[in-house]
Structure formats: C-alpha cells, structure tokens
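Input chain follows. Return structure tokens only.
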Amino acid sequence: MSSRTQVYLVALLLAAVGIGFTIYKVAVLGFPFLPGESKDVWTLESKITFDPTGGPVEVSLALPDPRSDWVVLDEYFASSGFGFSVEEQRGQSRAVWSRREVARSPALYYKLQVYRGVSRGADTAPPKNIEKPVLDDDFEEAAEQLIATVKAQSAEPFSFTRILLQRLNEEQDGSQRDVVSLLSSESRSPANVAIELLGLAGIPARIVRGIFLEDGRRRQSPSTLIEVWDGHHWEQFDPESGKRGLPANFFMWQRGGVSLLDVVGGKNSRVEFAILKNTLPARSVVMMENRDQRAALIDFSIYALPVEQQGVFKHLLLIPIGALVVVFLRVVVGIPTSGTFMPILIALAFIQTTLGAGLIIFLLVIGVGLWIRYYLSYLSLLLVARVSAVVIVVVAIMAALSVFSYKLGFNQVLTVTFFPTIILAWTIERMSILWEEEGPKEVFKQGGGSLLVAVITYLVMMLPVVAHLTFNFPELLLVVLGVILVIGQYSGYRLSEFYRFRHMKGA
C-alpha cells in the first residue's frame, strides 16, 4: 500500500470518527450545531396550603407525567419539617409529605424547570379497563337522550366529543335545555360531566390536568382538559369550548388519576402555581439535562473542567483552525511566511488586542526591533546574547506601549502583553539575517506574507460558527487533521505560481 493511499485512509478514518461523534452529540445529546440557538426554560413552582384539623397529616401531590413532550431539567421539594418521599400510587409518581402534628397552616413547595423537547407524537398507549359509570335514574335518562341526539350528528368518537361539548356549553331550547341543565348541575364540572357521558356512550376518556404557561403568572390554578380514545390514539379537547388539540402553551401535569392533590388531616386544601420564563443558550440547557446521566462525551470532556480552564481551551482549540488556514495558504495558494506557526500566534494576539490595535503594535514592535537589531549587528555579539537583547527591547517596547495607551485611554493596547514575546524576538532576528543575506525585498515579502496570513487566520477564527464548533464539538478537529494530511500530499502548482508563469501558457 502506497503512502498516499495510507494518508487518504487515515484521513477518512479521522473524518468518520469526528463526524460520528458530532452527529451523536447533536442527535442524541441535543447539542445545538449552530451558534445562537436558545431555548425557553420555564420555572414552575407549586404551592400547597391547607388548614390542619389536628392529628397526623399526609399530603400527596401528583408529579408531572413523564410521557409529555416537556423535559424536566431540575426539581426541588421543600418540606418545611415534614417527612418526604416519592411513591408510586396507581401507576403514577406522587410526592408524599407527612408529619405527626401540625400546629398552623403550612406551605409546601415543589419547583421544577422544564423546556419543550422533541415531540413524542400522539399517545398510542391503549386505555386500561374503564368501567361504565353508575348514575342515578334521572341523570341516566337525561344522559341517554343527549347521547342519542349527539350520536345521530357524529361519525366517530372525536366528532362525538366535539359536538357533545358544544351541546353542554351552548344555550339550548325546549326539552334539550332541560336535559343540559340537569346534567350540568353545580356539583359537576363540564369536564366531569363529559367524562361520565363519554363513558356511558362507551368511549374511553380521562381527565388531563395541567397549567397554561404564561410568563410572570402567580397563583394560577390548574386547568383541565379531557382526553378521548378513538381506538388508535388519544386526543385532547377543551371541555368548555370543545376545541380539539393540545394548546401549545399547555404543560401537561397529570393524565388520568383520581386527583391532583390529596390531603389527609387537613381541610381547605389547594395548590397554586407561579410561572416564570427564562431564555437560555441551548448548550446550557443540554448540559443541565445530561448532568445526571453523566454522558461520557460530557463527563470526560472540556465541559468537566473548571470554568477558568474552559476559557483557556476556548482559545487553544482555535489553533488547529489557524493551522489549517496556514497550511492551505502556504501549500495551495503559495503565500510565503516567516515560519509556520508565527501567523497563528499573531492571529491569537489579534484576538486579544482587536485587529486594528494588533496591526499597529505588530508593525511598531517589528520596525523598532529591526532597527535595534541592525545596530547590535555592529557590536559583534554572539547569537544568544543578540536574541536576548532583542527580547529585552521587545518587552520594554510593550511596557512603554501599555503605559502610553493607558494614559491616552486606549484599553485595547493594554492586552499587548499577550503577544508572543519570544516569537517576535526570533522574528526580528530572522528578518535581520534575511535582510543581510537576501536583502530588504525578501524581508518585506515574508514579513508581509506572514502578516497577511495572520490577518486571514484571525478573520476565520473570529467567525462565531468556528468558535462555536471548535469548543462544543472538539471532535471535529479530527476532521481538520484529516484535511491537513490530505493537503500535505499536494505537490502540484500553487495558485501564485499560475500567476507567476502566466506568460508561459502559450509556449
């Protein structure tokens, strides 16, 4: 197998691994592939209050249904001296607070943070055995009259439900008005009446309790929908308007079940909700969601480092992108530079100083350094002493620039100390030797090429999408490595050489 083939195979393997990990993080872990993506995170706080009647107290609250499209990021229980546990009751998770004696009306809290995840689609889990309701004679007779009327005007369970709810909520005339009045007594809510009538008609249905999400709402009571089974999937209906479908801002808390809140040893119990919306970066939301799962790509990654070190790597991870730009511009385009990595380091310095201030500093330091180096050449110093003297001169220039810029109010220049001092010193030494051996033309050629490549590298590294991808998907650097290996095999004409030999086309 030739070396060229091996390079292509290694590059292909590196690209496959990098792209594979990236797809996994986007599709499975939910990382945003593009910068600027955000998610609405809702904080819901339920407050339970009641008046104790003396003796032991047990409070049971249904917890949010895990089958909904909402993802729970965090939850917090406040027990206020109560014992607390989470129990499974009748197939539902419930928070249970208990205490031997309660002297005054307490307040129990359950707070959670949620955001809308990927839609799970319609619930296709079939209903459990639903017994036909047992009703008194007057109610059953009135119900059968209404059911017969609605059946004649409907075609299937969903249309039956819609027409039934409209009948229960609209003004009726004649005998139909007497039937609806009897059914919709004060002791029965529209939702409970609809559930009983649907059960009497042989249509499985259940109560759905939840909250309409409105930012800044306080003391909001839970709302009720009904859910109807047509033999294939469940569909939600508003019991007051008959409107079909789940509202977009409805957070489904409980499906079915006996009650949302049960209190033993208390009276006048109630649960109220406070709602707050925050818009967070999508990556932060993903990190919150996966922190308990301890996903390997998160637990053993840059995200596990302290924030200070993460900030360092945020810039270091840009270096491979700079290397790719330098390799392309030197190998393919043919721009000469003074060294390979000096343009990358200069570009990193530009990130700290901004491009305009960085160019001024670079030209000033190199110009003064070359003049000092030109003078030192007459003193016949050894190489080590000469370079050391240049380093001291460069540091002195940086210190002077910092002081003058501070006095003049140019804060960007204060970051001049981030410049690669040793690299600048060696650049000055190399350019001075080049001046002596090749003349000033070659110095300006390589120095200008280095500066041009540094500027282009800076502009590429400053792209928001590049910074986002390198930090959140560092595995893509394997793809960058593969591309560099492929470019390293290129031995054809550079683009600059096409221009150089343009007069030989017709020869």
